[in-house]
Every structure is written in C-alpha cells, then in structure tokens.
Specification:
Elements (H helix, E strand, L loop, with lengths): L8 H11 L8 H7 L2 E3 L29 H9 L4 E6 L2 E5 L6 E5 L4 E4 L5 H15 L4 E5 L17 H6 L3 E4 L2 H11 L1 H11 L32 E3 L5 E4 L2 E7 L9 E5 L4 E3 L22 H15 L5 E3 L6 E2 L1 H27 L4 H7 L4 H4 L11 H13 L14 H12 L2 H13 L3 H14 L4 H17 L3 H15 L14 H5 L2 H9 L4 H7 L2 E7 L5 E7 L2 E6 L5 E4 L1 H9 L4 H7 L7 H7 L16
Parallel strand pairs: 5-6, 6-7, 7-8, 12-13, 15-18
Antiparallel strand pairs: 1-2, 2-3, 3-4, 4-5, 9-10, 10-11, 11-12, 13-14, 15-16, 16-17
Helix pairs in contact: 1-16, 6-7, 6-19, 8-9, 9-12, 10-12, 13-15, 14-15, 14-16, 15-16, 16-17
Length: 622
C-alpha cells in the first residue's frame, strides 16, 4: 500500500507564493536546451543503467501539487536528451546520465570530455556519436575533475586494449588523490548519503523523484577509476590532442579539489567544467565532502572570463545546456562569479556581526539583480546550506555558544527532550498541532527527538515521515527534496537489520593503485581491537605490479611505505581486496596458491582488524 500523502493546503499555498516570485519566463533556457539537436534513442532507454521513460509525467507543463513549481521547470529542462551539436566539431550527449559527455572531433577520432558515471551510458553515447558522426576511434579522454560522474564510465569508451596502448587520459594535477579521498576513503558514508541526495530508492513519480537539479539522476551500472596518464599543472598550459589545441586553466578547490576549465581556440568553445552550471551549485554537498572555497571559485570564474571570454563563441559545461555568443558568455560568467562571491562575502559580514551559521542561513537573500536569473536558483545547492559552508570553512562547526560545544548525542538528548515535553503522547500532541498549522520544520525537529528516544514508536515515525514529506514537496532543491522524501520512505518502511555488513560496490576499490589501496585500508583499521593486540609488521609484495610495501600497525594506526619491513607475503591487489571485503578467506587463498610467503601468518592477524562497512546504516533513526 502506498503510504504517501497528498500535498497539504499549506504546501499548496507555499507553492503559489513562490510561483509569484520566480523570474520571468522568456523561453531562452528551453531554446538553448534543445538547440543543435541531432538524434537520440527512444526515451534515452539504456537497459539496466538508465531510462527517462519513468519520467514521462514531466511532459505536463503544469506542475504537480506535490512538486515545487521551480523544480518542476528544471526537471522538464533536464528531460532533453540525445546528441547535440554545440558548434561545428564539438558535440554533447545530454540526458544519458546526471552529467554530460562531450565529443571533440580530432584529425583521426574523438577526444572525449567526461565519460559519465557508469560504463553503459557512456558506451551508448559513443555509439550514438559514431552512428551520426562516423565510426572513429577514441583518441584521448579528458577528466574535467575528480567527481565520479565525470570519470566512472571511462571503460564504456576505452577498451582494455586502448588503456594498455596508452590512449592519453588528461586530468588536473591532484586528480587521483582527490578521487580516492572523496570516493574511497569516506566512500561508504558518502555512498549511503548519496542514496538520500539522489533519491536512489524513491519511486519516479510526482510524489517521489522528479529531478536532481544538476541533471535528472545518477546512472546505474559499472563504475571504474582508470588513472590519468597526463596531468595539467599550470594555467596557460597548452596541449594538442589528435590535432586539437587546448588551453587549460587549473581551478583547484572550486567545485572539486582538482578541477580545470579549458578553451578550444579553433572552435571558439569554452568548457567551464562544473564551475558554471545553470543553477546555484554546492559549496557543501549534502552527501558529504570537503567544504569548497567560494572565494577561489569566484576568482577562477573571473580569471576564465579574462582569459577566454572575448574569443568565446560558445560556452558549455559538464552539466546542463550551452550558451552561445561572446556577450552572453561574459554576462553568464559575471553573474556566476558574483553569485559565489556574494554568498562568501555576505556570510562573513554577518559572521563578523556575531550571527551564527543558522541565523545567517535564515537571513541571507540574493540581491535583486542575481535573484532575477534562473541560473542562480538553488536547484542543487541552496543559499541556506552554502552560507553554513562558508561559515564552516572559516570558523568551523562550532558557533561559539558554549552550550553547543559538547552537546549530548541524539539518543540521549532525545530521551531528555521527551521527558521535558511530558512524555511521548504530550510531545506528539504538540507536534500534531504544529503540523496542522503547516509548521513542518518545527514538527521535524520536535518529533526527531522522540524517534531517536524510541525508534520503534509507530506514531512518531509516521508523523515525522509526514512532516518530512511536505518539506520535500516544498523544496526547490532536487537534493533537499530527495533527502526529505527518502527520510520519509525509510521511516515508513524500515529496512530489516542484518547480522553482517551489507557492503557497497567495490568497483573503484579494484581500480586503485597499490599505494592508494593500502591507504584506503588504514581507515578500516578498528582502533580499539588493534590497540588490544599490539604492533604488527609485514612486507606486502604485489605480484601483479611488482611493488613491495612495508606495512605495519603501531599505536593502533596502519602505516605503509615502499620497501620491506617484516616477513613477506606475496599476492595480487584483487586477491588482497577479496580478503579484506570477505569475498574469500585466507585459508582458501593459501590452498589455491594465490597467497604465499611466511608473512601470510601476520596477514592473518591483520585481516580481522579491518572493518567491513555496512552500506545501509541508519540515518533517520539511531
């Protein structure tokens, strides 16, 4: 039975009030999103990985009552799919994933920019390009930055033979370290939170997932990480790939720790990576990541404008649709530049007046000139959480109030709040009154205490779900909507507990170089257990790479460095991964002869100290 509710009168009133404040509709975005269309595949349907068929309901121009009207508009724009000519020699496939894949026609084949999240959509995009523009080889790949939706589908466009032959893969300096840090070291937590942020488990309908703001959704399928072969280190660096000249601008600590923009002089085409998209982006992403530098972000947009805008005939990015003409490119870049600088400067202005991050987030509004633009709206990032991100970058998580310095954890605090409220029924009674008044934020805050004090209380879970649901219906941000609605879904349909970890996919883990692989195991070391056992030392010899590492545990910390230290064990990286995540046992590996050496005994002591992470840990309940 579908437990989801309709939009309340309070939600409908909130939508009507917002609709009256939205920018004027000129149709320019819809014209740009369809300009240059060549062809597509029906409903962008890629079996097992991607399809826009479930989103057919967005064909209706009138927003559903359960969807913010501004988000409905963005969701319709993100329904445009297929192969588009950006300018002669530059083509994009959009609507096959959260991100875009771009094809540059070279002398012999295609230079590919950002091969999507997973292999199947990337392969389908390449096939479409070959069908329409010629069956040519991939001659180079460029990763604009270190987020998985821009490199994870690389094996859909490069064969093992291509990789072995050394087809150039270009990325900004620091790409691999940033990709490993963001997607592997904290990958389990980020991956689980991403199921909330992208609404991965939500039905695709007007009461569920409608859009991610940045694109429709994240594709499913095989994700891999193939390291780059060339690094761009300096702004102004030039490279010619398959006869195509490219001028690069490195933009570290903007939308990603390692990112770059670049210009194609012969096409007059400027790629702004993910630094300029048709929305307000995240300075902090709710799935979790390092806070981004709004000041640097603004600076690099300004620098890109100075370097390239006069010669730019078309500006395109790794998401959304292009903009044509030097004048339009300059205008767009100025507004995007000032969008991030305004949030940065005004947050710090208010912080210096003594306001806390919560207070700043509540008060911050864009100036009229920026608020009048569609591309500054919070379809992905929001003014609210971006202001908190700026505060966090400069002042940290602590707001200065000593009452918040050492707060009680959620379960203990929940029990005490329920007690102060007069017990569960008294708290629920107050919360129901607030719900009737449309005060959903307060309901969510109040009932959250009861859910954490008693996670099995059915009425508390139901009311909390109802409040989160209405907040989701009202959210203009795709991720905020998905967070709220996924929370409601999990409150109404709790996932059965498991007696063993339900581990996430290990695709990126398998792609790591040996050094990065060992680094990722350090965050799995269970400190309390390791501390009780004492020090360990061994030499890990990887037979597939010829590398040897001294691996040790000292003071409950896992260390590694190139060289030898202790008895040696010989194995391959895939075998070690299988042992760590439990795909095989050390006993079987020894029996099969894939693990050898006297160091196997020390490895046998180390393996039980490495945690296996449960992907489906609880979020809206303890």
């Amino acid at each position: 039975m579908d437990q989801r509710k309709d939009a309340t009168q309070a939600t409908k009133a909130a939508h009507a009030a917002l609709a009256a404040r939205l920018p004027r509709e000129t149709g320019a975005d819809f014209a740009n999103a369809t300009r240059g269309f060549i062809s597509s595949i029906p409903e962008a349907d890629i079996p097992g990985a991607w399809s826009l068929k479930p989103y057919a309901f967005l064909g209706d121009e009138t927003p559903a009552p359960t969807v913010n009207p501004s988000l409905w508009r963005q969701a319709r724009l993100n329904m445009q799919h297929g192969l588009f000519e950006v300018t002669k020699g530059v083509y994009q496939v959009r609507g096959f994933d959260l991100s875009n894949i771009t094809f540059i026609e070279g002398d012999e084949g295609y230079v590919i920019v950002d091969p999507l999240t997973s292999a199947a959509p990337a392969a389908a995009a390449l096939q479409l390009m070959r069908e329409r523009r010629g069956d040519k080889p991939v001659t180079a790949v460029i990763y604009t930055h270190s987020h998985v939706d821009h490199y994870g589908g690389v094996r859909g466009v490069l064969s093992p033979e291509d990789i072995e032959a050394g087809v150039p893969i270009v990325a900004p300096e620091g790409f691999l370290a940033a990709a490993v840090s963001e997607n592997v070291l904290a990958g389990n937590a980020m991956g689980r939170r991403a199921t909330y942020m992208y609404g991965a488990t939500l039905p695709k309908d007007p009461k569920g997932h409608v859009d991610a703001g940045l694109g429709k959704a994240v594709s499913m399928g095989a994700v891999s990480l193939v390291p780059n072969t060339l690094s761009i280190r300096e702004t102004g660096e030039r490279l010619t790939l398959d006869g195509v000249e490219i001028v690069f601008q490195v933009t570290p600590d903007t939308e990603a720790p390692a990112e770059m923009n670049f210009f194609f002089p012969q096409f007059g085409a400027l790629c702004m990576a993910e630094n300029c998209t048709c929305q307000l982006h995240n300075l902090y992403t709710p799935r979790g990541a390092q806070v981004r530098d709004a000041r640097a972000w603004s600076h690099y947009i300004d620098e890109a404008s100075d370097m390239f805008a006069d010669d730019t005939q078309v500006l395109f990015a790794s998401h959304h649709w292009p903009r044509w003409g030097s004048g339009e490119a300059k205008r767009f870049l100025r507004q995007q530049r000032d969008l991030y600088k305004y949030i940065h400067d005004q947050t710090l202005r208010m912080a210096n007046h003594g306001l806390t991050p919560v207070e700043i987030a509540e008060d911050l509004e864009l100036p009229p000139s920026l608020a009048a633009e569609w591309h500054t709206r919070g379809y992905y990032g929001t003014l609210s959480h971006n202001a908190k991100a700026v505060y966090q970058r400069y002042l940290g998580w602590f707001d200065g109030n000593p009452a918040n310095l050492h707060k009680l954890p959620p379960v203990e605090a929940g029990r005490r709040y329920v007690e102060v409220a007069g017990g569960p029924e008294a708290l629920l009674a107050k919360a129901r009154e607030a719900y009737g008044r449309g005060e959903y934020r307060w309901v969510a805050e109040l009932v959250n205490h009861l859910v954490f004090a008693d996670p099995n209380h059915p009425e508390a879970r139901a009311l909390q779900a109802d409040a989160l649901e209405q907040m989701g219906y009202q959210a203009e941000s795709g991720p905020w909507r998905a967070f709220y609605l996924t929370g409601a879904q999990e409150l109404r349909n709790p996932r059965p507990a498991s007696d063993k970890p339900r581990q996430g996919a290990a695709g990126q883990l398998r792609s790591l170089p040996a050094d990065a692989l060992l680094e990722s195991f350090a965050v799995r070391l269970n400190g309390p257990r390791a501390g009780a056992i004492g020090d360990l030392a061994l030499t890990v010899s990887f037979s597939d790479t010829g590398e040897r590492f001294a691996v040790s545990v000292e003071n409950a910390v896992l260390h590694h460095k190139a060289g030898e230290g202790g008895p040696a064990v010989t194995l391959t990286r895939p075998v070690l991964i299988g042992l760590v995540i439990g795909e095989t046992t050390l006993e079987k590996a020894l029996e099969d002869g894939v693990v050898t050496g006297e160091g196997a005994a020390v490895l046998g002591q180390l393996l039980p100290l490495l945690d296996r992470f449960d992907f489906w840990f609880e979020i809206v309940a303890p």
